[in-house]
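User: Predict the structure for this protein chain, please.
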Amino acid sequence: QVPLVESGGGLVRTGDSLRLTCTTSARTFSTYSMGWFRQAPGKEREFVARISSGGGITSYADSVKGRFTVSRDNAQNMLYLQMNSLVPEDSAVYYCTTKVWPNNPDYWGQGTQVTVSS
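Assistant: Here is the predicted structure, written as structure tokens:
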């Protein structure tokens, strides 16, 4: 089991920044590539960003490229998503997950709400 807990969401204005954090007690954290998805009301869950197990390789959805940065601290079992230049279209529930590749285990956090006002 890999319990995942997100935090850091909130209500911000257009142009503001937020940093999301995901933590786990699982000792296997550093063996998994990890990432973030988001889901807005009435829309399907969509990929946001992923990072390799060692942190050296990252990839992003086109909609967030250049504004969001995913990182991790394996010593602390922490995954981060730094979100800059937020816009209302970024409003969604953000989920931390191990399911960033088809063969990865299917673990998800409970989600954290991000709301960006115009």
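The chain has a mean pLDDT of 96.
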